[in-house]
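Try this one yourself first.
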């Protein structure tokens, strides 16, 4: 059976809703793949989110190296998704390759969910990261929560 990785965006959720979805899915580790784990939305900055997850029995790991660097985020925001996608793919292939490898080992153990802000995974780098994980693991089921 293929390993599974979950992905989730918090853009349209409350902290309680997000944690509930993770618990229901059986997530044991939330890998925060934001470059900067800060949010203007209450409960989604690193410290508050990690505390709420711990209370629910879910581990938290900030994976800064797997975040989308600002130049590529900016390209995406200004409508140049091709440049944003190419830049992020190059980033995880070169600069963050070891971090992707380490995350792939965790994903193979099960229960991992990738977190970013973007609600729609089609517009988020976590989908590109899931593709890189699939390349390393061979088979991988990706479930967007």
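Now uncover the answer:
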């Amino acid at each position: 059976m293929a390993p599974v990785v979950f992905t989730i965006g918090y853009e349209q959720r409350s902290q309680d809703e997000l944690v509930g979805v993770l618990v229901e899915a059986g997530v044991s580790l939330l890998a925060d793949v934001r470059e900067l784990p800060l949010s203007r939305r209450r409960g989604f900055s690193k410290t508050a989110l990690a505390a709420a997850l711990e209370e629910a029995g879910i581990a938290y790991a900030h994976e800064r190296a797997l975040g989308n660097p600002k130049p590529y985020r900016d390209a995406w925001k200004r409508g140049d998704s091709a440049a944003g996608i190419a830049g992020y793919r190059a980033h995880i292939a070169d600069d963050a390759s070891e971090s992707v490898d380490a995350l792939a080992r965790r994903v193979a153990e099960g229960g991992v969910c990738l977190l970013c802000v973007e609600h729609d995974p089609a517009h988020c780098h976590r989908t590109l990261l899931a593709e890189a994980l699939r390349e390393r693991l061979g088979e991988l089921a990706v479930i967007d929560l």
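Discussion: The chain is about 45% helix and 15% strand. The chain has one domain: 4-144.
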